[in-house]
């Protein structure tokens, strides 16, 4: 927490504050890339308004925020709407600060671990090891990546509730590195009831808190289930009906709203044959949750935070209603793995993918919806390419991690018969 | 509480009517009203009324004048009142005034249900069945009426029968896309006792009816029972045909017109089963400039709520008293050399409505309903919106802005809701139902706006012509007028047009329909399903493959391929054969080293780094000979598990 941290935070706040006062803010809050049926501010407002009017918000099809959040924010939305942007900016800055603290702690833990294991490392691997400079560099990079990533900035000024999701996820990760079990479980349960997919983050949680004991794992799972029930019950008390379960979790699982977004679901299920719909729904939801959970948990059992990063990233790609705010969040976690960057081969490709597809999305959307000169396929193509780019990034990170681990112990240059060998997966 | 007051009046009148009539009596009346409208338009209104005092429910099995299907309806369903309208065209309130019966473009239907132990679910079921019955009876697409496009209005619709207690259910639906044509007119005429053979119905030839600017077929059924007694009831079936002709389209010089011009033939008589057959011709206001040939034998002057209308009355049964085949015709002769712009322009009616859509693109828009009150006093307004499920409406964006008649633009002044009922819509299940009530000050307009999002539907949910657009139903607007200007609807307790004569009441309930809207939803490419499925699954596979290979494969160190065969074909061959037979036949000139990615550092902590490297090389050597053996006999087995 040095002066630079505060400067960055202030600057991040200033950037957001500047943009929130421009017409860009209302434009972004209507863009499908940022505002999905789950997180759009318009729907949040509608939910709060309906709740205020005494109408069950979930009897309709517009509101998919949990009753707890609606109730918590209703005072703010109804009485002080002019302060809303400021509150959202504060929350976003808080997320940045949490990520900063999280990475400080993470680097410290890494260095500690490294000190114990150093004698096993190969000789020429200083480049791959965390060093004392990382104590400052990595948190700063994380902070910059969060505060000045256009995706998070725009997501914040569009007042999407992704700001809240990111805050809760950052809190979760922060408590995870800090080793505080109960807040972790409750935050995770809250996010799970809110948007379903974070349930996969149980894996890093178990890896951190119940490493060696099976019984511990069972107890934590039960605790998590109880926490979910408590949160559901609290939501029930707010609106005195269980309709919110179908309105939030059911809505996500059954993918009822086909509004275009940056994910893979919307066009797929628009064009789906009706009798295959259920099967593909289950397949896609499995893909977004458990499909990668087990192999990755086993592979990354020593790196729970990397596991969490990868799972959050996969969630952002494969969830039913992803938004660019989710993408911005996991991008901010990448600097934690700065020591893997050496082995990330597709950096340029991914960057180009992001740049081209993100700029195409706006254009193609306009051509499809307003100009009428393109059709849905164009926009679908852009979102598909964007997903591909993200997948490249994630798999690249995984490969890089595996290679780094290998080289850390075996040296960066492995010679076979006097020639440098190549490292492959087989 | 003028409403309760009105009910008492109705109850009294009904009771007196019931007391006078004896059971088993059944009457049929036919009426035709011709009213010249402004702008060279003529409104002709046919009303065929069958009124049957059937008494007990068992008597419904013996129908005479009433069509059997209507009588059976009352046996099978708990329906007490039913309205169906099939309309083509738009009634222009501002220039034409108010119609005698209201209808919206397309098909519209609403019904009241009342019965012992009736539940909402049972009503939903009966409602769908009822719609199906009339889909068959009128050959209309009413079978598309179901819960996804029906609402139960709370405030706007009022029953016209006697709800003994308040336990009534109402359902309303409209199908703005429905196109009304000959196939609806023919079955509609078949419900009449004389069919289209004789009587006024013989004038309704489809070739002429469908040439009109506006035509609306209506069907209204209601039952009136004495108090709580279900054994003394009247069944009233009213069939209406409301037509507006544009005289300029009748291919004739001048502005003269006649029954023959309008309907293609003169009247061939009256329906022999009818008790009365009368033609009413409006003679004042816009009718004053016409000379009628023949002159009407009788005239009726009616003053209702301070509004006087003069009707010439032709009684067809008198006209056709003497024998002989002939056709009866009435001609309206306009004065010659009349200058069009000097003509009388009627004052606009007290309330008129319009509706339009704001915004561009296929993403979102704003529905605007504009209600204008040209009366000097404030009037209560109730607006009912039925927004179909494929459009999302945001209640928090609903507001009513006001503008005085003189102003051009709406200011920031908003009107407060006196009443708000909202049932949010659900995709593929429920439409959005909105009813708002407010007091509209005199000489001002109210602009009711609500923001909507257009949804993307599944590809099979689009109609065959997907780019035609989707309809948003017309809004219903209701008000209560203190005066009868321009008001010609039947009073609640009356069943004939003649009953509206001199029917002054404390207030007049007015119902109006706005225009229906059409929105274009974003459409997918309908030829793409296979491609989309393949492409999306490919992207999923792009993640699935690498992630699982990272998670399951081991790291190997390979000598760079530059040492291998340089020839492309040979390399390909090597690749192909290296798949299965590698372990038994190690490649010449190529050596592989397999090293565990995690060498169990704790157990080897004491070893010297260099020695460890050598040991590993040895392990790698042995692995080439038999990798599986080394797998099982590795120094630290945990290394290999993933």
TrEMBL record, chain A:
Keyword flag Protein transport: no
Protein name: GL26132
One GO term (biological process): attachment of GPI anchor to protein
Its membrane topology: Multi-pass membrane protein
GO cellular component: GPI-anchor transamidase complex; nuclear membrane
Segments crossing the lipid bilayer: 83-103, 180-207, 214-239, 276-294, 306-336, 348-371, 377-399
Localization: Endoplasmic reticulum membrane
Family to which this protein belongs: Belongs to the PIGU family.
InterPro entries: PIG-U
Keywords, ordered alphabetically: Endoplasmic reticulum, GPI-anchor biosynthesis, Membrane, Transmembrane, Transmembrane helix
Pathway: Glycolipid biosynthesis; glycosylphosphatidylinositol-anchor biosynthesis
Superkingdom classification of source: Eukaryota
TrEMBL record, chain B:
Signal peptide: 1-19
Region annotated Disordered, chain positions: 579-629
GO biological process, one term: attachment of GPI anchor to protein
Pfam families: Gpi16
Stretches assigned to coiled coil: none
Record keyword rRNA-binding present: no
GO annotations of cellular component type: GPI-anchor transamidase complex; nuclear membrane; perinuclear endoplasmic reticulum membrane
Domain of life the protein comes from: Eukaryota
InterPro entries: PIG-T (IPR007245)
Record's keyword terms, sorted: Signal
Name by which UniProt lists this protein: GL16569
Species whose genome carries this gene: Drosophila persimilis (Fruit fly)
Lineage: Eukaryota, Metazoa, Ecdysozoa, Arthropoda, Hexapoda
